[in-house]
Fold:
Amino acid sequence: MGKETGFLELDRQDRTYADPRERLHHYKEFVIPHAEPALRAQASRCMNCGIPYCHNGCPVNNIIPDWNHLVYEGDWQAALDVLHSTNNFPEFTGRICPAPCEASCTLNIVDQPVTIKSIECAIVDKGWENGWIVPQVPARRTGKTVAVVGSGPAGMAAAQQLARAGHSVTLFEKNDRLGGLLRYGIPDFKLEKDPINRRLMQMMAEGVVLKESTEVGVHVSVESLKENFDAIVLSGGAEEPRQLTIPGAEMAGVRLAMEFLTQQNKRNAGDDELRAAPRGTLTATGRHVIVIGGGDTGSDCVGTSNRQGAASVTQIEIMPRPPEKEDKAMVWPDWPLKLRTSTSHEEGVKRDWAINAKRVAGQDGKVTGLECIRVEWTDGRMQEVAGSEFTLKADLILLAMGFTGPRKQGLLDQAGVALDPRGNVAASVIDYRTSDPQIFACGDMRRGQSLVVWAIREGRQAARAVDEMLMGSSELPR
Structure:
């Protein structure tokens, strides 16, 4: 695969980014892609590994060495075919996936992994530019009907695969636009929304019926779906946010990250303020912002706050600061725990770790600060450090502490399907079937909060399971 001596001749050179001083003035993507000769050179670094660990590192099991080799040879259209054989939406993963495949790359042993994510993104972008990506309309229709509830990456993948198998598919979305987390949870500067719109147009041409502003469990009952569809796929995500349960958290200046991010995405889409912010405008402009939570959602809040003109941004995390570099001998090819600095962090933020929030300080119902204490971790147990109390100045606190599982009201209450001990919909990865044999579940609603690439994988696998149930067998790939 690639050039046999490529990894010896060339160092890793990934995509670059626009200067923070420029990109903070807009919400557009700011990645600067490689020109084709540089991409082909980087693809040549893919080694002829005896065991390509990148396959295992990638949740959708992308056939990475094959399309790297095809890019090296300049056969971009064949590379696109190989890429699409395992991933319905590589333009999403090529932009926002944390690339566990690169962590598993053999060359990562010396911190020089192949630029897999950049090459993946370049392949699919070239496919769209050249008109190679067209609707795949099935040659025959089965007469079977499937309802997919939730239009995030899991629901989109399931709906597209089922439509290509010849079934009549209706994709339901409670929000006013389809795309789920991709649409409203991820800022435009990481993922602009044209790639989503393009895929939805493709899916419509393949026969998928799109139903936005239609919440199953509210506007349409689950019983009605069971009467009118042969199968139902639940792909509604893990939307129940982890709450801050300390004194003062009820004040108006303590808000959920998703509300904050969704409002800005809606503004970017052209919505007026009444539609973008029905509960009232929420912006960081001129405010001292504290983001609680050190993950990707917290990072997105940092980048959005800086673009809105925050007076200051501080991000805190209850877990200890990770090491700068992982112990390769201990963790490779598994995903390493190490310090990760995002492009949003590079734009300006104060970060701190091993901090527990104790009380939201306020005056006349308005947030003025956050009282905290430092903690130590020993054998996985947290201990507060006596005498380490301090107060951070704040007038806006954004909660980015993750999600506890799917919302139960409406959809799941009506479906009556069994839940696992964590509160997710119980369904195995063998057949994705719930306790109701007509209902399947996939993505974050089944596995809990996870990555977009895992959602795509589960949507594809659930589609195959539904197809097998409806037809007795399936030619859809897992």
Summary: The chain has a mean pLDDT of 97. The first helix runs from residue 6 to 9. The radius of gyration is 23 Å.
